[in-house]
Design a protein that fits this description.
Layout (H helix, E strand, L loop, with lengths): L1 H17 L7 E3 L2 E3 L3 E8 L8 E7 L4 E6 L6 E15 L2 E16 L5 E9 L8 E3 L2 E5 L4 E4 L18 E5 L3
Keywords: Signal
InterPro entries: YcnI-copper_dom (IPR012533), YcnI-like_sf (IPR038507)
Length: about 170
């Protein structure tokens, strides 16, 4: 019995040590087809070094248009609008501006996780076989900030960075 408890305690210590690296904000599902409407869910696994998350800002990459964020009870929602680098086709209608950033403000304790969702159209201008990155800034109650904004360069991937932006792998449309 003592041996089993010692092994369990050692295993728990190893797992806790392995989990000491900061978890990343992730995107689910991790892939979507170009030329389709996509529901993107951003998972926030923790706050900032023990502090509750108070605001989450997501920059919308070029080619992601018709953005409609999902309201969350208890959270304030803000949509920033801007001009696109080039016009995009949204179901037969050319659009040259739209939502370029979404922010939710509220309270997410460090020991809880939550999901923040938006619906958007992935323009047919986007390139299948590439990854589209959504830089995220996580602000916390103690004034600290986690910037999940690193975008891998050629020959690298998100695992090569300490604070990678969530990525969406683009596939060919239907």
């Amino acid at each position: 019995m003592k041996t089993t408890m010692t092994i369990a305690a050692a295993s728990a210590a190893l797992l806790l040590g392995a989990g000491a690296a900061p978890a990343h904000i992730t995107l689910d599902p991790p892939e979507a087809a170009v030329g389709t409407t996509h529901k993107a869910v951003f998972r926030v696994p923790h706050g900032c070094a023990g502090a509750a998350t108070s605001r989450l800002r997501i920059r919308i990459p070029e080619g992601v248009i018709g953005v409609k964020p999902m309201p969350k009870p208890g959270w304030e929602l803000e949509k920033l609008h801007g001009t696109y680098a080039q016009p995009h086709d949204l179901y037969g209608t050319p659009v040259s501006e739209g939502v370029t950033e979404v922010a939710w403000s509220g309270d997410l304790p460090d020991d809880e996780y939550d999901e923040f969702a938006l619906l958007a159209y992935l323009s047919s201008d986007l390139e299948p076989g590439t990854t589209l990155y959504f830089p995220v800034v996580q602000e916390c109650r103690d004034g600290s900030t986690a910037r999940w904004i690193e975008i891998p360069t050629a020959g690298h991937d998100a695992h090569d960075h300490a604070t990678p932006a969530p990525g969406l792998d683009l596939t060919a449309g239907r």
